[in-house]
Specification:
223 residues; 5-stranded antiparallel sheet; 43% helix; alpha+beta
């Protein structure tokens, strides 16, 4: 399954004509490109399920929620999808966004709930050595670079602002991202490149799954 420049060109045209009249006139063309991208995402899903367990695949709607946004344009100018791992035992998620000159994939923990976030912070407070070892491993960094995500400007409540690992403890998200050029997006091996990149994040997901399914004594929290 190969994506084509025509799909990217349509998204460029949508960005230049982001109004309901133009979209309604070109809706059939949009549906064609949407179907192509959805098939592409399903190839990624099949590839992931060879070595992982994906509980949910979602392709996001093109329509924007403008109720609380200053930007009132009605449509997103990208196509995107997410893949959620199975159950309580496997944590972490995968994300793909296709946008002309700004396509990327992301992995990690976008919005951990307060209980999970506290558990992660407590683990890092106790000992962040294994966490750092995983994210700084050379082959991992070659694919994913450095960890990103929103963070507090100071320490979370109840944590020492002078802690040696406060740079990690103050994070609210634990995300890695990887960008692609349009040439890469439309290349025949793009799906394989995404799948191999997603597989490369597994040591991080395995560690985080272990943290989030145990207490600080290492005892399982699963039934």
């Amino acid at each position: 399954m190969v994506l084509t420049q025509e799909t990217l060109n349509f998204l460029k045209d949508l960005e230049a004509n982001n109004n309901r009249e133009w979209f309604d006139e070109h809706k059939s063309t949009f549906k064609e490109h949407q179907a192509i991208v959805k098939d592409f995402f399903r190839v990624i899903l099949e590839g992931l399920n060879v070595s992982d367990e994906i509980e949910k695949f979602k392709m996001f709607r093109i329509y924007r929620d403008v109720r609380f946004s200053k930007d009132k344009t009605p449509y997103k100018t990208h196509l995107s999808g997410s893949f959620t791992r199975s159950g309580a035992k496997l944590r972490g998620g995968y994300y793909i966004r296709l946008k002309p000159n700004d396509s990327f994939i992301g992995v990690g923990f976008w919005e951990p709930n307060k209980e999970d976030l506290l558990r992660i912070r407590k683990e890092l407070e106790l000992d962040a050595e294994e966490f750092r070892s995983v994210i700084n491993e050379p082959s991992f960094k070659k694919v994913w670079g450095s960890i990103t995500g929103d963070e507090l400007k100071t320490s979370p409540k109840g944590f020492d602002k002078e802690h040696k690992d406060i740079d990690l403890i103050r994070k609210k998200q634990f995300i890695f991202g990887k960008k692609f050029t349009d040439k890469e997006v439309t290349s025949p091996n793009f799906s394989k490149k995404i799948i191999s990149s997603f597989i490369a994040v597994r040591p991080f997901f395995d560690l985080m799954s272990d943290i989030l399914t145990t207490d600080l004594n290492g005892e399982s929290l699963l039934d």
